[in-house]
Amino acid sequence: MLNAVQRLDTARETNCTPEMYEQLYRRSVEDPDGFWLEQAKRLEWVTPPTKGGDWSYDPVGIEWFADGTLNLCHNAVDRHVEAGRGDATALIFEPDDPATPGRSLTYAELRGEVVRMANALKAIGVKRGDRVTIYMPMIVEGVLAMLACARLGAIHSVVFGGFSPEALAGRIEGCASRFVVTADEGLRGSKRVPLKANVDAALAEPDHDTPIDGMLVVRHTGTEVTMTEGRDHWYHELASDEECPCEPMGAEDPLFILYTSGSTGKPKGVVHTTGGYGVWTATTFSYVFDYRPGEVFWCTADIGWITGHSYIAYGPLLNGATQVVFEGVPNYPDHGRFWDVVDKHQVNFLYTAPTAIRALMREGDAFVTSRNRSSLRLLGTVGEPINPEAWRWYFDVVGEKRCPIVDTWWQTETGGVMITTLPNAHDMKPGSAGKPFFGIRPQLVDNDGAVLEGATEGNLCITHSWPGQARTVYGDHERFEQTYFSTYKGKYFTGDGCKRDEDGYYWITGRVDDVINVSGHRMGTAEVESALVSHAKVSEAAVVGYPHDIKGQGIYCYVTLNAGEEGSDALYAELRGHVRKEIGPIASPDHIQFTDGLPKTRSGKIMRRILRKIAENDYGSLGDTSTLADPSLVDRLIEGRQNR
Ligand code: WTA
Asked: What is the DSSP letter of 81?
């Protein structure tokens, strides 16, 4: 079954045949500047660039199209109106509760709404270069806020609405953002998320010392919220229709900051710039989905993650596409909701995460087959490896063997899709992302950095820069160099393990660092550990990932308690609650094991390899435990695991 090739019986003519892929790929690596300057013409520039890439990985400095100027809001919105496509539908809003009315905006209407949002931002004092934190539900105004920042040349920093006030505070502080856009409440599966109250709590955090100059609050559910005089403003009171021109930006001016987890320390504010990111998202969207005018695209991600940035806010709109913006969740009001939305809006493309597919698969086929779904033309996945069983179900049941699947591998730092098959240009292999996108030069290396050739398995690096690559970590370029370019000098290291087969297909095996992927959400084990040890009763904590049927990986925590404390069900619940409060519900531990010690070497280093194996219930291959300071601890840990 592994390495099985899946071909489609009925292939439509696409924008990329197998021959074209080979030809374009060759050109993209032989003459990257020529290739990318040509792709850059997908965008409308104020000053078209004459320079392609100018980059080095040692020391690290990356620029693309540096002498070009443009505005991405103009490209995503105004440009289509000016070209006579103002009547085309841009956004179709599908609310959390299917019984409440949705909303649909043409490009002309979208332009009007973006101008109103930009004017409201201006009214609270936002100017070019300012950082604006966006903490929003999945409603149209979230996308508007991002585009309005781009219009003014302000840098958006979207924080996922599921993060706790503590996590939000760290992200506001991290980029010294003095402006916030939020809503009264969000809705997810009929549950209310108190967004405005969370912002208030974040700003009241004792170590929060960046003063907030202004906050815009979008009225969504209409619940009562506390407004601080002089600081908080209702969006609808400040929105106005005055002309608000797009600010011409340098290609290398930052477009946004997005916080993401790494193997150490606090989340990093990854910086993407205007020109390269714009070209990358526009080009990848066009080739990977093979979108045609009039078709309806739907990416189920949240704008709080990179997928929502690249394939909701930017990629589709830069291509003038029509797309669904969905506020809800796959299982509300029932497990057929995705397919109801597909039928209601005649969705042609569905782009979602393996965790959602696995969760829906578990509920049985009837929820799917009872809906029509004949509009579907292409299916996509992103965020984590997809197991072949889930792939098959997606292909056979959801897509009725008609729809190609693109399994797209990429990262917050890469800006857009890096490895994928292209619809109809490549055969698919369930579980394999496929081939490198244009300009991408993957390399597999062993732990010592030796390059591995042919069919092999190793650590995935990328040897050459591409336009969509992140440029730095906000305010900490050294950390950027250290994190991505120091493990294997002169290469970008992805943190992922990967196999390459004899056909040159890439199979991502998952993270090889201390990052775990829970339901497609990236999480640093160090973040969960630091949340746990901030609890008064906890002495030490070590967190590892372990295989989880639905989530891909679950969060397994080993905890030692302070002298005099006893592990109990009550404390277990208390610690779970504590982690949720510190980070958010997505970081809820799946298992907490109380232990009298952590396996450490004599020099005090925690041997995570052993903890991972025990969490996986894999005791046969614990490896050498003789270097442990207390080898007898291993048996106690195993016993504790079995009792959980
Ligand atoms: C994982 C999400 C296997 C990978 C766009 C990567 C995947 C991390 C895939 C980035 C895929 C993403 N197959 N693994 N198709 N897509 N990953 O930054 O481990 O939230 O390093 O970006 O997700 O997660 P991030």
From this structure: I
